[in-house]
């Protein structure tokens, strides 16, 4: 079992013992998604797989949060905000802007990138280095700006 998946299971157990109903429900949702992917792909998840799943879930929650806020459904927005905070507890510390810019500069230099035609190579390099620590849409915008 991956270390991250184990941490999520332990957090679920702790929340159950503390009788935190909302936290237990959200953690069970995470565990169910992890189990679904394991069953569908018929393999044990690695920490990288778990990170990818958590990032996908986080993106879904952020999209739903903005939709609920636009629709003025504060009760549903609060639930999404709670789930975002819970999922974020299991993700690695995000990179700050300076560190991300440095990773992008290094990737551009490593790939000898000069034009937008090289963006795919740069993005592949950056993605492996920042796995789960940066929003890839922000990274994409910064790479595009650096190559322009």
Describe the structure.
This protein is mainly alpha-helical and 148 residues long. The chain has helices at residues 3-17, 21-41, 47-70, 74-88, 97-110, 119-130, 136-147. α1 (3-17) packs antiparallel against α2. The N and C termini lie far apart (43 Å). It is 76% helix and 0% strand. The model has no long low-confidence stretch (mean pLDDT 92).
Write down the overall geometry.
globular
SS strand fraction: under 5%
Radius of gyration: 18 Å
Describe the main β-sheet briefly.
none
**Helical proportion?**
over 70%
Residue-averaged pLDDT: 92
Name a few traits of the molecule.
148 residues; mainly alpha; 7 helices
Reconstruct the topology from this structure.
Elements lengths: L2 H15 L3 H21 L5 H24 L3 H15 L8 H14 L8 H12 L5 H12 L1
Overview in brief:
The protein has helices at residues 3-17, 21-41, 47-70, 74-88, 97-110, 119-130, 136-147. The protein is an all-alpha fold.
């Amino acid at each position: 079992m991956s270390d991250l998946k184990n941490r999520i299971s332990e957090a679920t157990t702790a929340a159950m013992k503390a009788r935190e109903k909302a936290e237990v429900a959200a953690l069970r949702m995470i565990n169910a998604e992890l189990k679904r992917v394991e069953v569908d792909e018929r393999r044990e998840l690695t920490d990288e797989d778990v990170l990818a799943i958590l990032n996908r879930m986080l993106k879904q929650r952020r999209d739903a949060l903005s939709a609920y806020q636009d629709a003025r459904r504060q009760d549903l927005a609060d639930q999404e905000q709670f789930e975002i905070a819970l999922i974020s507890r299991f993700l690695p510390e995000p990179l700050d802007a300076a560190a991300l810019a440095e990773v992008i500069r290094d990737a551009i230099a490593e790939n000898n990138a000069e034009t937008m035609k090289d963006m795919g190579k740069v993005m592949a390099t950056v993605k492996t280095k920042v796995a789960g620590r940066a929003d890839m849409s922000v990274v994409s915008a910064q790479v595009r700006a650096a190559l322009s």
